[in-house]
Design brief:
- The chain contains nine helices and 17 strands.
- By secondary structure, it is α/β, with parallel strands linked by helices.
- The protein folds into two domains: about 200 residues, no CATH class; about 120 residues, no CATH class.
- The strands form five sheets. The chain has a six-stranded parallel beta sheet with strand order 2-1-3-7-9-10, with helices on both faces.
- The two termini are about 25 Å apart.
- The structure holds calcium ion (CA) (2 copies).
- The site of one calcium ion (CA) has 7 residues, from loops.
- The site of one calcium ion has 8 residues, from loops.
Amino acid sequence: MISPTKPPSPPIRPKVLIIDEANSDLIDVDGDGIGDLPHHELMERFIQAECPTVECEKILFDVKNRFWNRFSNGFKVLHQYKKEEYDAINMSLASYKAYDEITVKGQPIKPDQMHTEKEILRNQSWFNPSVDNALDLMERFLGKLKNQLWNPTKQGWMYIGAGNVSSSFNWLNFVSGAIHVGGELPLSSHNSLVNRLEPYIFNVVKLDEGFDINSDGRVDVSNGEVSGGPSFALSFVGKSLEEVLASPLELQRIKQGEDALCHKKLFSGQQLRALGWIDGDLEKCFASLGSYVFFDTKRMVFKPGFHLSHGRILYNPANKPEDNGKHVVNGLSGTSISAPHALGKDLQTAINRSNEPS
Ligand SMILES: [Ca+2]
Ligand SMILES: [Ca+2]
């Protein structure tokens, strides 16, 4: 006798709310220096890259002015009118404060004290009441997230990046119950409020039909969505270090104001420090990556990840042995990417577990 086959369960389609800025600059995906996707769109792609069945909704805030007032007002609106339930939230908004602006018990705060002194810090006079209000609203909203049966942790997930500057923290990392994602590199902000570490730099690999942003061999951004110019990395890859590293004479010319040279050369961390463009911590970080850096003066960003292989330059910003620099055209970095990467992975892991035979 043939036993009836159990019909397959319908695919689980988790629902994620992305909270981000409405008017952020476009992010360059294909590495030609021209922006391609809005930040919130990139957040969605990183979640989808790990969890293809996800449905994303977005709430985009205009946060250019009076950040906290607009933010907490925005959250009030969310509480009043947004009735849908979500499996997870990706919180991309952030605002930063330097550790050296705060003292606790008469001493400057240390990053590893942030968690134990959390309540004291939230009750100090420097703590903006609008911030406190926003944190309270976020905690209440987090408490209302869907309690999904397929999610083994039975709790709502809110993912918040820790920030990209080691001397400061993100105010939003005070939200209790959230997953605070730091990057696995000293480039990012690290303190005891951070409870999750994820990769900080992601290679963008060119495939035939588009671009793979999470190194799984599947296209996440199609060819038609990018500006399509040559990648900045191409002008260095395959050359010898002598050809591409700024010489002492060129460093001198840059010091005298010849900015155009910045786009034509790579720099070591030591050279950037000598130019006064980075501090000692960043120099150490670049040295630990073993990489040379492209310094984009148009947008003031560092693109690390040029390595030497058999005497030739290759580009592999995430330092992934399996990519080996082949067809890598750009590197995307920051904890605002580490966070949706973690979110997508967790959703897919929960879905896979719920599909396992019991
Ligand atoms: Ca581009
Ligand atoms: Ca992919």
